[in-house]
User: What shape does this take?
Amino acid sequence: MKIGVIGLGYWGPNIVRNLISNKNVAKVVCCDSNPKRLESTKLRLPTVETVTDHKAILKDPSVVAVAVVTPVSSHYRLAKEALEAGKHVLIEKPMTDSVKTSEELIEIAERKKLTLMVDHTFVYTGAVKKIREIVDKGEVGDILYFDSVRVNLGLFQHDINVLWDLAPHDISIMDYVVGKEPEFVLAIGAKHYNDMEDMAYLTVGFRDNLVAHFHVNWLSPVKVRRILIGGSKKMVVFDDMEPSEKVKVYDKGVEINEEESVYQTLVQYRTGDMYAPQIEQTEALSLMCGDFVSSIIEGKKPLTDGCAGLKVVKILEASQRSLLNHNAVIKLK
Assistant: This one.
């Protein structure tokens, strides 16, 4: 098949590279308004075609799918144009900048029987898939909390705040691993250098006292990519900065011994072994692009489809409302 890629900024060339390497992709057409980006991509990947107007891709009947890898503010417009032109669509995260526009894209794709997918790459990593496997086996027990830290120095964005930029990664991981519908959102953030929050703390609440917490920051002196999952049986740490043993499972926890009355309840701590499971090493972006292509060929639902993208946008939009309303708790429908 022939696939178009709109946008060759930071992430676009990576999408192009992985699509070209897919055995079912015959040609990739790249589009960007900046000729220098097109020249650079052509030098590295000489087999690609290049155009400066995305409408040329949409009008080409041989192009069956389009990847939208542009700033968030243009996702809805470009994805809608592509869907209405009869193209399958892959959108960079986050899906759009509002719940309403995300829902509209899902409706169009369903009506036209087209694949709509969001690039939540981390869901395809060997580490996250292994964590999901461990949780599904019941090894962790009931999940008590999900805690993530994603901080570094930069890259400052000018159209979205730090929550919309960094949090989609960990929110998509949480949705995939936890698999429950959140009930409320609360966000706290601060603006230091422009009119966008450059650091923020996001709390997402579920039933049964399950709480997820996200710390995102563009002003950290060190780069941290870490997730902690606490369960009633075991605990999991995912440190993406580790060169090996990114996932570690700890046989640690808390046990309650109740005697004659509640006043004599005893809290005991359990400390056991730690092990690091073997994880798949295939590049996650390659697997994500492969899922997009196979979903088109087989007519199946991709792992990170439009509905998965919508779940992330719902939390992000609620977090924005929380920030605008002085850190209010926003209930989710």
Remarks:
- The two ends are 40 Å apart (CA to CA).
- The chain is about 35% helix and 30% strand.
- The mean pLDDT is 95.
- The chain has two domains: 2-114, 123-282+315-331.
